Amino acid sequence: MFEARLVQGELLKKILEAIRELVTEANFEVSSSGLSLQAMDSSHVSLVALSLRSDGFEHFRTDRAFSMGMNLNSMSKMLRCAGRDDIITMKAEETADTVSFLFESPTQDRVSEFELKLMDISSENLGIPETEYAASVRMPAPEFQRICRDLSTIGDTVEMSVTKDGIRFATAGDIGNASVICRQNTAVDRSDDQTVIDMNEPVALTFALRYLNSFTKATGLASAVLPVIVEYRIAEMGYVRYYLAPKIEDEEMDN
Questions:
Q1: With helix as H, strand as E and coil as C, how does 97-152 read?
Q2: What does the CA dihedral 143, 157, 229, 241 come to, rounded to 10 degrees?
Q3: What is the 3-state secondary structure (H, E, C) of 148-201?
Q4: Residues in domain Proliferating cell nuclear antigen PCNA N-terminal (predicted)?
Q5: Phi then psi for 126, rounded to 5 degrees?
Q6: pLDDT digits over 117-156, tens only?
């Protein structure tokens, strides 16, 4: 028997909206440590990793580890039926072919129950290795979202380059060029408003903007983001991480 009760039900709705554009079907892995998901997009260019610790739920119980395969668009449709302040409880038997979602209003005067059919999805855990990165940048999530949105009006790709002066986002397209530089800023009071650069060596990589714009749908989950890996920390209970392969220029591929 699996049961997980989340008082901040709106959080689950935001998580689904943040990942379903990249991944349409995925296995939710249930274990005593919590809920997790790992899946690649259809083009195998980006990967999404979700982790929600069991202690972040008001109540979490599972008798053993198992997988729940779900269509994320269908799951999102059901979650939209929950009120903004509803408490959401997920329930499933290990051998059942459905998972139920219970939506309770804060005053308990309305209770709705929906059942979603589970899917048999074959997938493998990629076992993402621990990697030492040449540079790490922590910046306000809304700022990252705005930069990606603005630059995508000019070009299809963005070069991110990190130096001691800051992080530079640059793009070029048929109508012109654009660039944005964010310098380290630790003087502001709120840590979520700071831009913090930790650089071992300068780095410059090019990424597809359409994927980064998809990643920024998770902006509502966190106030700060670390671009790329792009990581959004979810309250105090876990994270959504997006991994994106850099674009390789044709001349590099020919060598």
A1: CEEEEEEECCCCCCEEEEEEECECCCCCCCCCCCCCCCEEEEEEHHHHHHHHHHHC
A2: 80
A3: HHHHCCCCCEEEEEEECCEEEEEEEECCEEEEEEECCECCCCCHHHCEEEEECC
A4: 1-123
A5: -80, -10
A6: 999 987 666 656 566 677 888 888 899 999 999 999 999 9
Beta bridge partners of 167: 162, 182
How many of the other CB atoms lie within 10 Å of CB of 253? 7
Whether 181 and 129 have beta carbons less than 8 Å apart is answered as: no
Residue pair 118/107 in contact by the 8 Å Cβ criterion:
no
Rounded distance, CA 69 to CA 27, Å? 4
Helix (H, G, I), strand (E, B) or coil at 108: coil
Residues of the chain short of pLDDT 70, as ranges, are: 123-132, 221, 223-228, 248-255
Of 242, 178, 226, 199, give the one whose Cα is nearest residue 22. 242
pLDDT given for residue 252 in this prediction: 42
Count of CA atoms in the C-beta half-sphere (13 A) of 182: 24
Token duo for residue 188: 């502001």
Query: Can you name the residues that pair with 205 across neighbouring β-strands?
Result: 160
pLDDT of residue 131: 63
Q: To 5 degrees, how large is the angle CA 87–CA 89–CA 91?
A: 170
The pTM for the full model equals 0.78
Tokens of residue 85, six digits:
């302040």
CB contact at 8 A, 35 and 73:
no
Give me the pLDDT at residue 255, please.
42
Tell me the C-alpha distance between 234 and 218, whole Å.
Answer: 9
Enumerate the β-bridge partners of residue 250. Answer: none
Give 245's contacts (C-beta < 8 A, 6+ positions apart): 45, 46
Predicted pLDDT of residue 3: 97
